[in-house]
Structure formats: structure tokens, C-alpha cells
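REQUEST FORM: STRUCTURE PREDICTION
Request ID: SP-0412
Submitted by: Lab K.M.
Chain count: 1
Length (residues): 143
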Amino acid sequence: MDIQLLETNLTGLVQTCSGILINTCQLLAIFVISVGVARALLIFLRSSLFQPQTALAFQRSRLAMGYSFSLGLSFLVGASIMKTMLSSQWEDIARLVIIIAVRTALNLLLERAIRNSQSIEDESLDASRSDQEAVPETVTANS
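STATUS: Completed
RESULT:
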């Protein structure tokens, strides 16, 4: 009798803690994605209003948002794993596998886009630096 009571209490405790962790991960995902969207909007607005290179501003804002989406998706994958952790039904496990596969594919695509954006931004920064270095040379050559 005492063992069954202990098992029931522990099961309730584990389910409660699991629910708290799941909700925390989901809230963190919402927070991270929201902050990333706001940050990307600020980067884009600041860069596009005060600098003539709007394509570069778009890339920078997209890069900032990509990082936050990637982290948010990671939190959501963790929450999905915790949801299924206590379930022993094959239907829930199959649903988890599909959700993780889709979110992992999205995360990989986001990371690839981030890498491409970084390389484009690095190339454009190198080009702008070389243009700035070339301007003083032509000024001194004409003087």
C-alpha cells in the first residue's frame, strides 16, 4: 500500500515538473523569437534609414532573425521531447518523430541561410572597405 501511494505521488510530481518544463520551453521559444523579430526590425529600420545600402540592412536583419528562429526551434524541439517523454503510446512517439524531423529540417535550412547571409555580408563589408581604402589613394594621386 505504501509503495503504491509513493508511486502515485512520484508520478504526479514527475508529471507536474514535466508540464512546468514544457511550458517554460515554449515560453522561452516565444520570447526568443519575439525578441529576434523586434531586433531584426530595429536593425533593418536603423540601417535602411541612415545608410544607403538597404540590401545589406536586409541581410543583417535576416541574419539576426535567423539566429533567434533557430534557437526558438531548438526550445520547441525540447518541449516536444518532454511532452512525449512520459507517453508510451506509439502514436505519440510517431508524432514526435515527425515533429522533430520537420523542425530539424527547418533548423538546418535556417543555419544554411545564416551561413550564406554571413558570407554575403562579409563579402560586402570587404568590398566597402576596399572602396574606402581606394578613395584616399585617388585623392592623393590627384593632389
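NOTES: Residues 2-142 form one domain.
Reviewed by: T.R.
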